[in-house]
Amino acid sequence: MSDGLFDLPGQGGGSRPLPAGSLAGNAHSSAPLAVRMRPHSLDELVGQQHLLAPGSPLRQVIDGDQPLTILLWGPPGTGKTTIASLISRHTDRRFVEVSAVSAGVKEVREVINGARQALANTGQETVLFVDEVHRFSKAQQDALLPGVENRWVSLVAATTENPHFSVISPLLSRSLLLTLQSLTDDDVAVMVRRAVEDERGLKGAVTLSDDALDHLVRLAGGDGRRALTYLEASAGATRAQGRTEITVDDAALAVDRAAVRYDRQGDQHYDVTSAFIKSIRGSDVDAALHYLARMVEAGEDPKFIARRLMIHASEDIGMADPTALPVATATAQAVAMIGFPEARIPLAQAVIHLATAPKSNAVVRAIDAAMSDVRAGKVGAVPPALRDAHYSGAKKLGHGHDYRYAHDDPRGVVPQQYAPDDVDGTEYYSPTTHGFEARVTDRLAMIRKILRDR
Prior knowledge:
Layout: E1 16-18, H1 33-36, H2 57-64, E2 70-73, H3 80-91, E3 94-99, H4 105-122, E4 126-131, H5 138-142, H6 145-149, E5 154-159, H7 163-166, H8 169-173, E6 176-179, H9 185-197, E7 207-208, H10 210-220, H11 224-240, E8 245-246, H12 248-254, H13 267-281, H14 285-297, H15 302-317, H16 324-338, H17 344-356, H18 362-375, H19 437-451
Parallel strand pairs: 2-5, 2-6, 3-4, 4-5, 7-8
Antiparallel strand pairs: 1-3
Helix pairs in contact: 2-3, 9-10, 9-11, 10-11, 10-12, 11-12, 13-14, 13-15, 14-17, 15-16, 15-17, 16-17
């Protein structure tokens, strides 16, 4: 039976050479469910199919037995360690794992020297897997370079951080960067169902209600290891009560998180999202934080929340607080880089900023009014003075003639027609007196007076 992709749980300090492709010591019955269900072949993988297509770089490494340096970048529980072990298994190489949490420069050098000796003495190549490589210092990453440059090892390094910021340039430039994606809900559901039935898993000793499955998938948030960890805890809670069907209450109790009534494809998704945005618009920061918490606890995609905040920053705040959009945009970038659970913090900061900011919908009203006129056919000719005058013959057509350069006027504004005749004099933007926009109101009145004094 197949299963999904997982990272190895922490194994403590040190490196450990294993038989080619094996995970010796991790298949015993008391090992965590996520470890027992680790794939034994590429055909058992769930997720990351974009990396496994025929002719893909990873397939070339595995099928062609090519020594390469690979950086695996992706969220937790998406299969970085599993891919490393399968590379070793399918290419019949030694597999040595080093944790960046505990290994130092001395140990890295010892591992590389050992790989060089094995290559010289027996011809056997080594896959060196470095988990959480972003935790390595520059000196520790530098220690990997001789082994990479001389191909004494096939380095597979995993990171949850953006390698362009966390991996030194010499190592990054010598590496093939493969980006892993969070598992989809369908992927996680397949993994959970298989773990219930598989002989390596729960062996069919329990069943899983549909509601419980949905709850586990939602809480996993695309993390396969987390899903199976929660499943194992839920099965234990069910058995302890002398029952065999895992219910949603069992799942909620086992992972100490309430089963939030929230369907990401149903009414709850739209209702909560609507209430979230309307609470921010209404400046009720506490209500907005409540709805944010409901979305986070229900496993809503953090990128979806961040996108809604960016839209709201312009639609409902706009020029009343020009910093709202940069804050929302920075939040989206932070969310994309760190993911849950840490992403809840910048999301909360952005919600607080936007909810407490002065509000104005003048920006959306302005662009909608302008688009309405365009759709109605008010698209007159561009005034000759504003037309492109850089190509040959433009001057003969009168392009650019009488154009007045704004910077030549000490006010920075000159009387001149910019809009086509059809909409000349139309005022689309009507600023409010809220926040920063109150200052815009006075300046805009002065600008419009100058422009029309012609």
